[in-house]
Amino acid sequence: xxxxxxxxxxxxxxxxxxxxxxxxxxxxxxxxxxxxxxxxxxxxxxxxxxxxxxxxxxxxxxxxxxxxxxxxxxxxxxxxxxxxxxxxxxxxxxxxxxxxxxxxxxxxxxxxxxxxxxxxxxxxxxxxxxxxxxxxxxxxxxxxxxxxxxxxxxxxxxxxxxxxxxxxxxxxxxxxxxxxxxxxxxxxxxxxxxxxxxxxxx
Length: 202
Ligand code: 5GP
Prior knowledge:
By secondary structure, the chain is an alpha/beta fold.
């Protein structure tokens, strides 16, 4: 694969608030970011849209892409729930002149960092605590208790990988975390962040 812009990875246990941070950063024009839409074999939740939140596909289709070596990275994040970044997705966004931002799991994030060490900023978002994570996942109430427990178990393992990332953001106060992430990405890309008037200072 040839390279283009930068790769900005946000990895964290599910429920840490990384999706909120990624969405916020996508709204900042000076960062020139585009979201890498992942492929997944999990079923669609709530208002999720095909091609916008994920490329939803059957497990057999996902496995065929693995065989064809179409993925930059892929993971069986939860049993029978595969997630992966298609090479074609990153190539497409780079061809548009964008920096690419990822909302992916810890193992996938580190794998991309290894493949593109010079172009990647890998950020780990730390939740306040495992108990707080449980509360957030339950509030979201899109999943069964069994699935939530699976996510919690995985979160404990993922927390231990934080030191392998370039940067860690503690998401104890969302406003502060957003500001910190904005500054961090702007510094890495080499642009001046245009903070909004009401954006909190870190
Ligand atoms: P969810 O089912 O909540 O959308 O995502 C579950 C987990 O899979 C999250 O931690 C999410 O970041 C991760 N994930 C989403 N896309 C990818 C991907 O392309 N590769 C990897 N390795 N993980 C992903």
